[in-house]
Amino acid sequence: MQYYLKIFGCQMNYSDTERIETILTKYKMKKAASIEAANLIVFVTCGVRQSAENRVYGQINNLRKKYPKKKIILTGCLAHRKDVQRRLKGKVDLFCEINNFPKNILKFFQNSKFKIKNSSCDASLKDYLEIKPHYTNKYTAYVPVMTGCNNFCSYCVVPYARGREYSRLAQNILKEAKSLVKKGCKEIVLLGQNVNSYNSKLQKGEAISFPKLLRLIENLPEKFWITFLTSHPKDMNDELIKMIAQSKKICEYISLPAQSGDNEILRKMNRHYTIAHYKNLIKKIRKAYDSRSHLEWTRGETSNRITPAISTDIIVGFPGETKKQFENTAKLFREMKFDMAYINQYSPRPETAAWKLKDNVSKKEKVRREKFLTEILKKTALENNKKYIRKVVEVLADNAVRPHSSLAARSDRLKYMGHTRTQKKVLFFSNKKIPVGSFVKVKITKAKAFGLEGELL
Prior knowledge:
By secondary structure, this protein is of the alpha/beta class.
């Protein structure tokens, strides 16, 4: 029996998929190279925006028409919704929330008379977050530290789709991180809908906050990077800022979603902070890194430190957002000079508080506002990236660029794609082969809005 996975959405969904692969492998199923070759197709869905939801409907409808005998499972953020279940009734064989996947998949196999080779559910499959993942990347690994959310932002489906916040035990996270580092992993990405609200314990009963968890992981031997996603501004405190700024392993990249640049819209979003608070956080973060660079300089240490990269998430066209309120968001973009921003047009989501509000900003206006912010972002990102020119930066090599690629057509030298500690994509050139997944030194020669170019040293 063969399976195929269709993944939509965020890094957490990709991490969930790695655990799903482990479960299916337990039952001796093999991964198919294509949908056509698979007996079972698993859709790992995202419910954050209507566009992602519509893609799921379209693909499942087409799949069912073309391959009526294939089995289809729908999991992820759409699986719990009754309206989705009604719409896809008769087309999906199993709707299964991700945390129930381990126990429900066995029942599904038994009831559908799948010829699986394991007929009993292994005890190790009962806690979904503690399932050992089938890592898809040897060098960069996603490690969930918590799931769910208690914030109930008025536009967001996460508390309904994933439930309330649940943090993994610190010793289990450490065990997974140790195993990854031992096997040569070079980058660990800690995941959670709100990672800085992480709160758990060690076996001895000691309370472990997110800064303490970061310190425990950083103290592991060997060289590797640590990144984390995503932080909520109301929970980004001084202890965490100080810890990450002083760290040698935590990357200089902070994802801090603002969602809007207007206080009244933030209130309607139920975000629990003001724009003044958000701006002060960015100021604190940059000042903390400036202090570290100054300390290294006074010690006589060589420092190629760059200002930390700040990424944000923004929603345009939230119900009732006026042009003046949108201009406040544009003002925030100009002042904060973000390195990256994920700009989304507001999409009404069932179950959320904002679902009851009138979606009164037109689609045309939402598109205009998204494009407007994107143009500001291009300018600030380019301005930030120009600071890298002539600097030598550490890069994690992600992959070699194929010769027929347009990126590789410029010369007969070898080309690689990688990324910096600040998550900047780098195209770099080399006269020799290098192992993918290795740390290299690259001198930056060119800057674009969303990428860098350089030469291998």
